[in-house]
């Protein structure tokens, strides 16, 4: 652990000053009144021997510090003083003891309930920090109760505020992602790209702990643009993921304010012209280590977790340069399917992408080339029916989303080619008797992969399939010998195979023949 030298020196200086101050106290105040005692105090207290001196010490503490470096203000503490003597006091005031090198009065405020303290009466002092901007330090001083200019009671007093966190030096390589050049910064770690259009914008970030202490938690600045996937600003992970060598995967979800404020963000970001995206820095994600445990997860003797919550990488703000991109073009994947097909029309459907401005659909008769724009559709559209097509023909379709941002249009990627096709047309059939057989002929159907021939006996009989051709070139069929003096009906339909499945056209008109 690398502790800030400045904080260590400051704490040491505070302790030295307090020891000098205590040593001078006895001879500095000749008019102290031993009959004035502290009856109660709602704050804390250090017992004799705990501190750097051998006397009890009343205390005021702020154990936490906010991400903006201000302290978390404690509630007001009240100290009650009782006068058990015979002397009355009428002009009291309360101040903090100070010397020529330190002025404590700017840190702590003391509010005396009354200037008077008669015999066998009490007076109270309300104690708290003057504001939330107190710097990290441990100060040992005293509360002085004064009558005019004379100090009549000296009460040993201490106050402290948590430092933010001490530092760990870690490598940017501990974050997932690729290295990219960030304008004005140089080569930094890129942790992903989020879609400006989508309502749920998520960065999935991986962090591998290559340090010497377990991770305590990850934190996000509440005033920033992300939360964790549970909507909170702290993520603790599991013990196995937090150990040295462990891996945490963080899902950072962009808040809606990212989109509403994006016009301002884009001005300060860097524009990637080729990929239509804005490059931004993420300075609000922090890693906090727990130095109370070693790399093996065992408690370190004599070391307790700091009251302010562990050790942070990179200092008071994250100095690890993590970048991410906000894509202006839609990143969502469009999956298409044929929801219905007829002889002269095809209906293409796709999944809806939230936040886009609309869709465009394209068609070709070849899988990998020749696509032509067909139609532009609204953001609510999830299907399109392509009409006036040729029967029995194979077609390919692509769909892509677009988004209108700041007066410009940005297109997403095309969907994968969708192979589709129309159903074949109805055959035109002729049926003739040849002895006791039926000779069935029909014209070749464009695009047909094959045909099925059906015959039924009598007007009320059921059609039975008597033949299936697997070639579109077969255009006639001769039946087996049939029964005499029976009437037979025949019909034909064509089919087309698309993606391994048969799609049938309509039945031909039924033809009637009687066997003599």
TrEMBL record:
Residues making up the signal peptide according to the UniProt record: 1-25
Organism name: Anaerostipes hominis
Alphabetic keyword roster: Signal
One Pfam family per UniProt: fn3
Entries under Gene3D superfamilies matching the protein: Immunoglobulins (2.60.40.10)
InterPro entries reported for this sequence: FN3_dom, FN3_sf, Ig-like_fold
Keyword Phosphoprotein: no
Stated name of the protein: Fibronectin type-III domain-containing protein
Start and end residues of each Fibronectin type-III domain: 330-425
Superkingdom in the source lineage: Bacteria
